[in-house]
Amino acid sequence: MAHAGLLGGNYLRFNDEIHINISELYRAAAQANLWLGEEYRQGAAGPAVVERARLGVQVVAMGNLLRGFARASGRGYTEEEVRMWKVIVKGLFEVIKRWDGRTMDAMVFPALMREEMRDLGRRGLIGESFFEGDVQPNSLRADLDMLLQYLAVKTVEAYTAREALRTTTRPEPSVLHTVSSWIKNLRR
Known about the structure:
It is built from six helices and two strands. The protein has one domain (22-187). The radius of gyration is 21 Å and the shape is elongated. The longest helix is centred in the last third of the chain and has 29 residues, at 140-168. The chain has helices spanning 22-37, 52-72, 79-98, 109-122, 140-168, 175-187, and strands at 47-49, 103-105. The protein has 188 residues and is mostly helical. Helices cover 60% and strands 3% of the residues. Strands 1-2 form a two-stranded antiparallel ribbon. Helix 2 (52-72) packs antiparallel against helix 3 (79-98) and helix 3 (79-98) crosses helix 4.
């Protein structure tokens, strides 16, 4: 986490529209760090929901952690790769903003997101060749794929949390129902 700049507050924000509460960022960084450290990362499956508020801080945490892990493993990003990484992660958040509230299958989330990201290449913000060919291990593109897989897991968690809240929240009776109950009790 030190290589990512998350401990000293020297992290990349990527986008000024991402609301960052420092305690949320540390919690997200711990979750992302734990996920990265798992020997076997289970892929995301099932229904998922894109929630801008929840994913924004996750994007910042994992985006910085991946950059820090690259540096710690001796393959620190070049200046050009840092520039591209900033553009990629900022573009990723723009897609998340557009998709806010959208429900989808988590297994297709990374592929759909990758297709949306290809627009960055078409606009000349990153090289179009970035998305061509096979993904090379320990590359910027491999880091992007790792980030997309992690976000897919987080969209499933968001859906699960939303459904749990929906099933545990008792619907409040309407005002009309309350008034009719009072009238029934008065007649007794």
